[in-house]
Predict the structure.
Amino acid sequence: MVTGLKNPPTDHAGLLAWVAEVAELTTPDQIVWCDGSDAEWKRLTSELVAFGTLEPVPAKPDSFLARTNPNDVARVEERTFICSTNPEDAGPTNNWTSPEYMRETMTDLYRGSMRGRTMYVIPFCMGSLEAEKPMFGVEITDSAYVVISMHIMARMGTHVLEAMGGDAEYVPALHSVGAPLEPGQSDVSWPCNDTKYISHFPETREIWSYGSGYGGNSLLGKKCYALRIGSAMGRDEGWLAEHMLILRLTSPEGKVYHITGAFPSACGKTNLAMLEPTIPGWKVETLGDDIAWLRWGEDGRLWASNPEYGLFGVAPGTDYRTNPNAMRTIEKGHTLFTNVALTEEGDVWWEGMGEPPANATDWKGNEWTPDSEGLSSHPNSRFCTPIKQCPILSDAYEDPRGVPIDAILFGGRRATTIPLVTQARDWTHGVYMGATLSSETTAAAVGQVGVVRRDPMAMLPFIGYNAGDYFDHWIGMGKSADDESKLPSVFYVNWFRRDEDGGFLWPGFGENSRVLKWVVERLEGKAEAVETPIGFNPRPEDIDVEGLDMDPNDLAASLKVDPEEWKAELPLVEEWFTKIGNRLPTQLWAELDALKSRLGVD
Ligand code: GDP
Ligand code: PGA
Ligand code: MN
Ligand code: MN
């Protein structure tokens, strides 16, 4: 028997049986039950430094840099599978195999895959342990990088295992980098495998991941549990698991609002969540930057909570001008950086962080100067940092109920067509906006960058079931509200519209507070808007631009609703709806027809 199975720190029979079964299959050298302690963090970070997986970042307390294998830098959507019994239940937007096929295929891959390595058992909880039903998970992994990342990103360790007791339900999440070591074989700094599978069994609520060490593929509480498995749970239980930031906005009069925002990966969630308003008297506090669980409150309103414990932010573009609160969060240390540059002074640097250093080591470990051809940091390089270090974290963050939502923003990265902000007519129109959301692809996923694709509710890679059923669930959530006026108002934003020279029309970042102000004033019935074919839109004079040095033509262009551009969008939406097929709710076809007739197209 491998060490670690004797005298385990739990009497949860189901968990013990699963751990024993995985150990027998993967044959690790030893099993370690992760306790989440500082001592564990110290031991593992020291080991990883000794192995060359991590390099200390001396300029920041207790911080480290990881350089991944250059082929393991982002989520792998092509290799992500939803394994429902019936392929229809995975729908036309997910990769599918039968559960039997995937179990057989991956069992073969897992056989002996932890040879020569340590198998870590990480008890974790997504969301508060004080929740009515705590959302437990256990990740088994052979990556110490995953363990220390989970220290930051999730509530984990002994207190979670104790809270699970002897019989709590949990989501088993198995991860192996797929790089067994033969006796005497020396390890590489970033073990992984060319063969990758990120598989989900929504019916049995299980996750199996193989071959990648990158965050979104390996920190299984995040995308895999809190979004893909979570969305399937939400469908069955009447709630929503969404790819959303959550923020609290306080107006100069002291009125408090809560806003969530669904933007695709690398399209501005972390930045908006930590926004520093440029307009006087307004205050933003952070609740979450990537995932929100939306449930009904006792007051009949929709409440949002953040199941995560850390921030996993895109590094490039982050600095004191764009996102000062993210900088303040990482300055406090205890931060893991992945695929950024390290300066001679021993600090991190990436594109967009002020003046480049004269000399640095780039994300691949090569010498880098401002004259070097390539980027110093991978475009999807990340900082992983405790959310508790965020100086503007809301005091409601720990509340298991979350916060009542006033407005939902959908948004994407579009150079054309989509105005800075549009308000939906009603809930169903808002669902239509979300269902037809489009965005240019980014470096957050492996594949071509800058291609416009439909990314419904920013959930294309994360819906754990049929997208048509998912839209129906959204519409149904609106219907199950006891009072439509209690539902959040829906808005569609685009910070990324460009001028003819390719520059952004809208200054973005802290200036987005001006858009939030218009949103709130719409809720209060104070701000003006005009009704256009696509919804309610502000005129330039409706946006507060006081103190903003901006060309009025650019403002007008950023707000413009161009019927010709919208007509060109129609066939793309039609194609998208046709692809979703017969499970697409008829209400959404009706919304498209109504939009067509408002645009004068039949
Ligand atoms: P997330 O992945 O959705 O959390 O997106 P981030 O907030 O990390 O932002 C992704 C990238 O977009 C970063 O490089 C940001 O600097 C950039 N970004 C974020 N907000 C804005 C904005 O309002 N305007 C512009 N132009 N870029 C932005
Ligand atoms: P992001 O999170 O949305 O902050 O980019 C990671 C991801 O979605 O891959
Ligand atoms: Mn994300
Ligand atoms: Mn983010």
User: Anything to note?
Assistant: Residues 563-580 form the longest helix (18 residues).
